[in-house]
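Exercise 7.
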Amino acid sequence: GKMAQRIQFLKYRYARKILHFTYRDPYKHGKGVNALIPLLCHRFFTIESAQQLVRKVLTRYDFDASSLVADYDDRSRSMILEKSIFGEPTPILFEGKTVYGVAKPDIYLTRKYGNYKQIPDPKKQKQHNFYLLELNKPYREYQDYIRPLQLRLLNILTTFDQVCRERGLRYYLMAGTLLGAVRHQGFIPWDDDIDVGMPRADYNLLIAHAQEWLPQNYEMVCAENTPAYPFPFAKMQDAETTFIERRGFKHVGGIYVDVFPLDGVPSGKIARKRQFFQYKFWTKILYFTCRDPHKHGHDTSSLIPLLCRKLFTPAAIQKRIRKILTRYSFDQSVLIADYDDGIKGVMDKKILGNATPLSFEGKQLLGIEKYDEYLTQKYGDYMQIPEQGKQRQHGFYYLSLGKPYREYKGKG
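Solution. The predicted structure, written as tokens, is:
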């Protein structure tokens, strides 16, 4: 019955979600409300018990005794098929080899893809993603990519520091980079990115003159100079490398240092909440506009991204976001924030203070003056090293430290 099918797929969906939350880093999206459900799953389930829950749902209806069957991971109930469509395994040619497929491939493929013989245009040609790929090395010989990446990132950071000092621009090490400077006098051992913040006026000045100020092979990429740029902050990147951050994003560049503008924040609580709500709303619209709308399939999950693409362009959304961010002047505000850090990152400008020298990988770089207040607000007991399961990494879709991103032609 249809109701039983809906209940069965709903149970599978939730069991699968529990498995996902139990397996993944609970702090993948920060330590706010986004961590609550993963933490609850970690508390009440192990990976083994979550797998057992999934298996219990999947095996509730016996394959041999059923007239309808499905690959539940296909998600869509439209792919509940009569078992006769599968039939006996049928020989079919694949890359010159004979393998076995379903007995009635035309019915199966039509149900799944519609006009499946029509080759989709390049923008709709889906690829699956991976974290790291090495075709010539056994996985048991895999060595961590972190340290080579950190050293290349350090080159970008020291160049950034040199340019800022030469041009009289203010900047501050922030977030995990500042924590690394204070706790480790360098990178947090497992960290794979660098964050700096700049007061809006300095940020705008650097963007305006980056092409003339930065050495060859370093670039400042942002919405102001890059069409369809998917982020509301800038990145200083190494053009001799290739880095793709997320599945479904077409933006290809080099490894980078995140450069966040620091802007004013209203003192009133209601105005502050409205300000951050507007920022969060439009950055979400920007994300939907820039990502592959069919990232999660050609079902209802693609409706909002497709609608956003129809109604907005990335350039128009970036303009709206800049208008929100610059509504309150950094210099005239008591409170300031890197808006990408969320409303919990709002701080008194006195905490930022004057840029203070800190040792980072043997270099003297500049951090927040009252770093103890900042780090305590952001991390709590920040000198306590988290256990291994809670050591966050950002990860990526594709990385090459030896290939210029302009030569990137895909993963082939």
